Amino acid sequence: MNILKRKFIGKITLLLHSNGIEETRLSKENKLGYIIIVFMSIFLTFTSELLFRGGVEKTLSWMINNPISIIWNYIIVISIISLLASLININISIVISSAVIIFLSFMNSIKISLRNIPLIPKDFSLFNEMASISRLAVNFRMIMFLILGIIIIAVICYTLFKISKVNFSITNRIILFIMAIVTLTSTSFTDRMGINNQTASLEDMGFVQFFYSKLQKQSDFNDIDFWDNGEFFLIDDNYKRAEEKPNIIIIMNETFWDPTLMDNLKLDVNVTETVDKLRRKGIYGYFKTPAFGGGTSNVEFELLTGNSTSYYDPGYMLYSNEVKEPSLSLASILGNQGYKTKAIHPYKSWYWNRREVYKLLGFDEFLSEEYLVNPDYKGFFISDEYVTDTIIQEIESTDDPLFLFAVTMQNHGPYNDDRYEDYGLDVDVKNNLDNESMQILRTYSQGIYDADKALGKLVDYIDKQKKPTMVLFFGDHLPILGMDLKVYNELDFMNANSVNNGRMDLYSVPFILYSNYKSVSEDMGTLNTSFMAPYLLRYAGLEMPNYFKQLYGLSQEISVISPIYAVNKNNEFINQGNEEFEKYNRIYKSLQFKNMYNNNGEGEDEQWIIRDNNSYNKELNNIVIKGGKFDGNKFTISGKNLYPNSKLYINDKLYEYTFIDKTSISLSNVNIDNKSTIQMKLLDSEDNLICESNKFIYSSDRE
């Protein structure tokens, strides 16, 4: 026993001694590892800002003027590298960190150049949306940025792996891990970084700090103060109720705006002729939209729900992230008053999660690209005129009052293409700009001309109808006219006034509200998109929930409110921090929080929410195969809702077919035996099943 004990003690002593030697041997390597991490963190912090700011001079200027921010950016970078280095090889951890930070910085630069808003983590939950449109947006600058990023990462890899392999000891790994975790998750650390400051900007914070802060925060409801605001805005409920409920048509036209608001632009025709005429007998003004260059669904969200996107991070998409249960909306409110409620969008139904969101908002039906029969295209997308024709068909197909919300697609950017070359241009640009700018302006202005013309066609139709009908027409946001606001700058649209007022000019789109039973011209000035829904209901003489009544009252006090400024009823700009701004901001925030997150299926407005919407798209999804017969070698299938975008399966094998109409399709040279199973499935572009037909069993006896 003593011998065994002595041997065991000897082995332990030898092991401890060898570990001590190993620790001593690794001490120089540990020091080299720390040196590499320190200097690579400095390099990555600087490179990240260089990609964002686009120049060494601008980057150095920011570092000099924002020393605290540069320290926080550095702390985050070194903490991330340290965390990875505590788990894996130092060289590999630096390569991974470099690749991720440079890639994110590259994406941030591109997004700002296109849409003037920064990259946030939630953008990556919208990968399919970005991929679907990005194929149209790739340009030389993007490619060069990508090549630059790859070169930087390649140089880092080559340099690091030329150095001898470096690894930390277990003790140092534990120390690094604990320090990194504590730093990255400490509440006091995140508070000092400004994460809880909703208006902290990317420009001041730097990219790494800004992006990291958005990992933990998307909304500004964490400091809700339930101020007593309810009774104050339950006012003026004595408006005249409608004797006959009017049709309500809303058209949110892709990037509709008057390009001649850029004073130096010269076009040979008036591209907004219809809108200009309607101003003489309709309600008009400008919406302060929450988007620029993209993010259409956030504009929809504001208009349909009355909720503001201002209480969320810039670029945070509400449809995809916040609409998860049945919600109050124009569709649910009008559906509860006997309206047939329909949405039309001539694009993919999964985009911005519209297929699910429209159901939760209470629509009866969503007619998307998948259901359309022989749509007319102009350029890359389905034409605005086709959408107008579809709206007219929907008006004629129902005797019930109709609420129809249409989102167009034809004039989607970017515009540096000749998409209308085969159609002929109705618009010519008279300016003397470079080729790229001229192409952008010609393409965009032609799209506006077509949109205005399509609106004219709809107005001509409803003017001939006895049924009272109102049309709200507006643009979702301003277009991307080149990288870094290229055309706007060339035509001197980016003046001092627009910059000083939070670039309000870049976030103001025209609207027109016209009806065939009222003739009154009124300039409403500029108001939040989110304030229009209660105004529409009052204009139509319809009932509305208390939340909308409160919003209407609020809009009479303050027409525009954003995260950093507001416009009061005297048309005065009020900046953040002003007592009046803080008062109305607090009111709106509290009202919205109660409406979106604190009703618990109860409350006075619960009756206006459609909780059970099982009939959603029921008629559209009712694909029925009724029969099949041979005529020589041609086999014809008959049925109902046989959409041309559907896939045909015979005995579970996919077959091509010729579309005849929604009641019949045909195919040739196919062997179909008795008891063969025939089925059609409607899938979206992501191969998600939308609906499917019955499984029809073929029998020659039925022919």
Q: Topology of this structure?
A:
Layout: H1 2-53, H2 56-65, H3 67-85, H4 90-115, H5 127-134, H6 140-162, H7 170-185, H8 187-193, H9 202-205, H10 207-213, E1 247-253, H11 273-278, E2 283-288, H12 296-305, H13 318-321, H14 330-335, E3 340-345, H15 354-360, E4 365-368, E5 377-378, E6 381-382, H16 384-396, E7 402-407, H17 435-463, E8 469-475, H18 486-490, H19 496-500, E9 508-515, E10 522-528, H20 532-540, H21 546-557, E11 558-561, E12 565-568, E13 573-575, H22 579-597, E14 624-631, E15 634-640, E16 647-650, E17 653-655, E18 658-661, E19 664-668, E20 677-683, E21 689-692, E22 696-697
Parallel strand pairs: 1-7, 1-8, 2-10, 3-4, 3-7
Antiparallel strand pairs: 2-9, 5-6, 8-9, 11-12, 12-13, 14-15, 15-19, 16-17, 16-20, 18-19, 20-21, 20-22
Helix pairs in contact: 1-3, 1-4, 3-4, 3-7, 3-10, 4-6, 16-17, 20-21, 21-22
